[in-house]
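Hi U.,

Before I forget, here's the chain from the pilot set. I'm dumping it here mostly so it's searchable later in email.
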Amino acid sequence: MASTAEPASTDVQARRPQVPIALSEVGVTGVEKVIRIARDGREELYWARFTCVVDLGGEQKGAHMSRFEETVNEAIGEVVLGSCVFRAEDLARKIAERVREAQNAARAEVTIEARYPEHKPAPVSGIETQELYTLIGIAAATERGTRKVVGVRAQGMTACPCAQELVAQSARERLAADDFDDEQIERILDHVPVATHNQRGLATLMIGVPEGVTLDLDATVLLAIAEDSMSSEIYELMKRSDEGHVVEKAHRRPRFVEDCVREMLAGVVRELPQLGDETLRLRASGEPRVDPPAQRDRRARRAARHDPRRAGRDRAGAPGPVAARLAAGEPLRGFASTGTTRLGLWLTTVTPLATRSATSPAPPPARRLPPRPKRRRWPGTIQDRRPPHRRCRPGGRADGRAACSS
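Structure:
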């Protein structure tokens, strides 16, 4: 009897699936690589985590998973080889374009998060300490081009302004009871930092660059903006003088997580004035850092984000109108009129909202359903044969009249 099995060389992934439904994200996640870059006569190591996904059409059964790994290795060799600066967004762009071509997909998206050490001196003693930062690079490749996202993530310290105000109010009352006048009380509180509770926080800042725009962003500038947005920076190694400096700085700059997000946006407008409306989108977020023993308390953490996850609360916008409003002293209510967009939606949008002209075709109007006809009561139906309520019958009321005419 002849065998009906297909040869092993048949491309099973290219077959037509039994259920021809297109999938939006098919690929690999959690791919880890160590990248070595020679810089100033020394070798720098980056621990990178990759996520590569493509849009899979309804006529293809599956993606070729081995091609993801091959593309990542080839792109690392081409982009990193001979370079003295690691740019996660350029590597993500190269991988996304190659993955899209290798998988014959309409769209490919690559996300890279690379951690690397940075040596910097302590604020007072000057002792050298090593800090770990995260570079973020995202790229979405389509036939229209490739959109990139440049981002950083840094940790710092946040001091609570609410608790500090409560402690300061109690101190004012005790000082007033001890015969200090108002001027003396304010001078004391101005010279002595008021106690409050504090915690570590994570600040994330991302800038999106659309197709056809060449923009050279220095990650060190973005890291400085992210760190300065919090109450104080933190250092892994500190002497007593450094510890006192960090604690006092944090308590003199108490900030909510929401304040840190706003400070990051204002820092981008201040430090990067060359960015225009059509060149980018911003996304900033902040949250407390939760260590593994406290994972069960994650639902109680305070977090804020500048990205429109919910209308009216979290928004993302172009820095041009934001700069104008900041200069005019106007409140920024979610950047609702500045072309806000979600990060994921922006990566999949063909035409940026800020660059859409007045002649662009408007989206088709929403289809309205015809009004639902009213129910008619036909004679002889159950409704007409239903006996009236007892109180509606003649004699149902005390005066012998009917309560209603139904």
